[in-house]
Amino acid sequence: MSRGYRVAAYYLLPSFVFVLLFSLYPIFESFRLSFYRLILTLPWLGQKFVGWENYYDLATDPVAMKSLLTTLLFVAVTAPLEVVLGLLMALVLNESFRGRAALRAVMLIPWAIPTVVSAQMWRFIFNDRYGLVNFFLFGGQTHLYLAPLADPYLAVVAIMLADIWKTSSFAALIILAGLQTIPDELYEAASVDGATSWRQFRHITLPLLKPALLLALLFRTIDALRVFDLVVVMTQGGPADATNVFQFYGYKKTFAEGMIGYGSTIAVVVFFVSLLFSLLYIRLIGARILQRSER
Amino acid sequence: MRRGVLWPLWLVLIGGFSLVPFLWFVLTSWKSAAQVTAIPPEIVPDFHWGFYLSALRDHGLLKYIRNSAIVASLTTLISIAIGAFAAYALTRFQLPWTRTYLMLLLAVSMFPQIAIAGPVWRILSALGWLNTYQGIVAAYIALSLPLAVWILATFFKELPYEVEEAALIDGCTRVQALWKVVLPLAAPGLFTASILVFIHVWNEFFFALLILTNPALQTLPVGIALFPGEYTMPWGEIAAASTIATLPLILLTLIFQRRIVRGLSAGAIKG
């Protein structure tokens, strides 16, 4: 090893130690434990190797399967909507007008707010006795008021809305960065040729924006798979497990019920689902970033 | 794009969508108890400070603020320092596995928390670091390093190598070159990365909930999520606590929005 490499290794070492200890080792340990039966509340059972048993249990656990479906539905609804809303915001913010900086700062507020705070805020807005939503729907007729967070369908919708409000502006930022790479000359040439705004959008903006839109979609997908804070604060996974998303279910099994082995199995499945999307992301986008870093 | 007559409407819609829900919560924090539950809702508050007083005095808000400030500042300082060395090595030495390391960090940043939560808990438990500042800070450093290294690497890459080369030729060691030449030039990048790491850590909930079960050590997100309500929810106090927890972030965002936007899109599009 040359001297330069050794110096570089010293510089990288501290970061690697943290990542190894708190990310890489834990992942492998979760894998290992997913093949064991280990229940904290039943310590006399010890740590017993059970092969694929936890995985069979998971596949036949109706709550887990429902939880997986709920999570995927949550992702399928929120991620695309966030990208569409983000695109609208980005198109507006890409124009130059007075107060653009102010509007961009305002747009960042939902992104900056702690998720827990936005969860409490939406919980208040969806309140069954004095929430704004009920007032907008039914005015003073309090006997008609709904309890959205106590209804299996409306609770899912409420959590989706809270997520869309919180994270659309993040999608907008990624898309805005993409918009700014499209040269103005293309639009000027198209205008000279008499192309309408819609045709310009359809044939210049959208095709050139595809990488940014995909990137935003994948970022949001991977993040939405991890939804947790909103559920803990707004519904605690209820009512009747309607909002029992995968991360919440895994957390409950592992830490509330002490089922370390089974909880690890859930963790491994969540990991693979999100790895699938991450690989897609790295394939689509990562290559571009790396090409630039080698120049 | 040609702007139609609906143009101002778009601006109002985007501004309203982003601002109104939270503004409603802030207004709630200044209301009187009767105003909070009034139907029809009263928009203009009486500007009572009662909820703030009771959140601070009866609900231990001050303690949560102190814990959050300590944890977020320590994490930011340490992970930016560690991240700066890593980013420097990755951008300044022609290493064969630079790609691999950056990709590894990217992959790690996408792990769902639950996939590592159990073993992280067991490691901290073995060290006796559950319910300690060092325990939560250690976990947070690991979680924020990918963000720090990626942002710093993008900034370091843009710095001209010639200046540094001149310093090396003049007899500076690598550490001196990093300390005296690169870091001052990279100050804007360090600052941007610090803001983003700080916001990330200030808002983190999953591991805080897991590691800090002792109320004396809990951070703001845990305090706000577990706000106790015996019969009815203390909405006024929750709104007051939420406003205080969010205020530093809103200030950072309003003052440094350019940097934040640049930092967030650095790794993503501009490469």
Topology at a glance:
The complex is a heterodimer of chains A (295) and B (271).
Chain A: H1 3-33, E1 36-37, E2 48-49, H2 53-59, H3 62-94, H4 100-112, H5 115-125, H6 132-138, H7 152-179, H8 184-192, H9 197-224, H10 229-234, H11 246-256, H12 260-293
Chain B: H1 7-29, H2 33-36, H3 50-58, H4 61-92, H5 98-109, H6 114-127, H7 133-158, H8 161-169, H9 174-185, H10 187-203, H11 206-211, H12 220-225, H13 235-270
Helix pairs in contact in B: 1-13, 3-13, 4-7, 4-10, 5-7, 7-10, 7-13, 8-9, 10-13
Keywords:
heterodimer; A: 295 residues; mainly alpha; MetI-like fold; 12 helices; globular; B: 271 residues
Describe this structure in words.
The complex is a heterodimer of chains A (295) and B (271). Chain A has 295 residues and is an all-alpha fold. Chain A has one domain (29-289): MetI-like (MetI-like fold, Orthogonal Bundle), CATH 1.10.3720. Chain A is built from 12 helices and 2 strands, in the order αββααααααααααα. A two-stranded antiparallel sheet of chain A has the order 1-2. In chain A, α3 packs antiparallel against α9 (197-224) and α5 (115-125) packs across α7 (152-179). The longest helix of chain A is centred in the C-terminal third of the chain and has 34 residues, at 260-293. The mean pLDDT of chain A is 89. Chain B is mainly alpha-helical and 271 residues long. Chain B has 2 domains: 1-48, no CATH class; 59-270, Orthogonal Bundle (MetI-like fold), CATH 1.10.3720. In chain B, α3 (50-58) crosses α13, α4 (61-92) packs parallel to α7 and α8 (161-169) packs antiparallel against α9. The model of chain B has no long low-confidence stretch (mean pLDDT 88). Classes of the chains: A mainly alpha (295), B mainly alpha (271). Chains A and B meet through α1, α3, α4, α5 and α7 of A and α1, α4, α5, α6 and α7 of B.
Q: Based on the structure given, which CATH architecture of chain A is correct?
A: Orthogonal Bundle
Parts with pLDDT < 50 across at least 5 consecutive residues of chain A: none
Strand content of chain B: under 5%
Cα-based radius of gyration of chain A, to the nearest Å: 24 Å
What is the global morphology of chain A? globular
Total of DSSP H or I helical runs spanning 4+ residues of chain A: 12
What fraction strand of chain A? under 5%
